[in-house]
Backbone:
């Protein structure tokens, strides 16, 4: 953090790389990547971070944390896909949120040089990448989950069609 | 983002609140909160964000994204708990990582005013909070997960003892 960042109470971050995906506009993106498994994408890391990928290829899934660079507003409540009602911004996955932090779980396909290829993508092309973490089944996959307002849309094995997030 | 942030290629974030937990020092924290379920914690949001919690109480779990404020170094490879070998920083969950972004899944207990009470905590007291997202079983809980170097430590139902993360 720079000296000025500290003084102003800000937290200063930087892109560690970029995400490349088949989705050029928000309207093309599926609700979540897991529902359109065939789409392929990759991330390109800046050179200095490439050694950080060591041993990630032994994991099946990764968590990507990124910056919703196309969002130009911050909402406290929002209307999600599939709904006519507003919910609190912390009960939906909208990009128009405080700090504009995005989060996706993706399936690792391969790692070559500065690139990690993956599927199960729901991220816009040229999104700035902030972090990669290994997805750990023992911590990150939970049982007995109740998913609030989303339950009614997914009940009886239903998978909603693509819509605007 | 401020004008200066754009010019310098920086991404500027701010804390939306603070996390309060029983863990005052890193050495007190369990490997992951899910292995010490009884510990209780809460987060306190800044007033302007409180309406953002609407309907989050209908979810069983939340994703917290926060800032590892005690880390003063950035590593590209690191030695995780339980290991004598170095792994790439993106294959471990160490706080000493580019951008110092932390990620935890917690179990929601209740929401009252500007506070969300939760359990399954692995976060240091007074950690700055950056975002809250609903944990959605349909997207976030995955099957057929392979967890790389962690598999050997958890095999046959083993749960490792608390160690330094």
Residues:
């Amino acid at each position: 953090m720079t000296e000025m960042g500290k003084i102003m109470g800000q937290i200063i971050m930087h892109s560690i790389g970029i995400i490349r995906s088949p989705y050029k506009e928000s309207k093309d993106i599926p609700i979540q990547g897991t529902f359109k498994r065939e789409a392929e994408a990759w991330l390109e890391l800046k050179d200095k971070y490439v050694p950080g990928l060591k041993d990630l290829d032994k994991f099946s899934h990764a968590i990507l944390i990124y910056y919703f660079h196309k969002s130009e507003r911050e909402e406290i409540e929002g209307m999600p896909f599939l709904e006519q009602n507003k919910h609190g911004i912390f009960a939906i996955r909208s990009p128009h949120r405080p700090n504009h932090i995005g989060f996706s779980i993706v399936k690792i396909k391969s790692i070559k040089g500065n690139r990690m290829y993956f599927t199960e993508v729901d991220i816009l092309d040229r999104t700035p990448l902030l972090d990669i973490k290994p997805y750990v089944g023992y911590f990150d996959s939970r049982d007995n989950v109740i998913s609030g307002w989303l339950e009614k849309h997914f009940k009886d094995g239903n998978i909603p069609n693509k819509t605007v997030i």
Notes: Chain B touches chain A through 66 residues (CB under 8 Å). The beta strands of chain B are 10-13, 17-20, 40-45, 61-67, 77-78, 87-88, 101-112, 115-119, 127-134. Confidence is low (pLDDT under 50) at residues 1-7 of chain B.
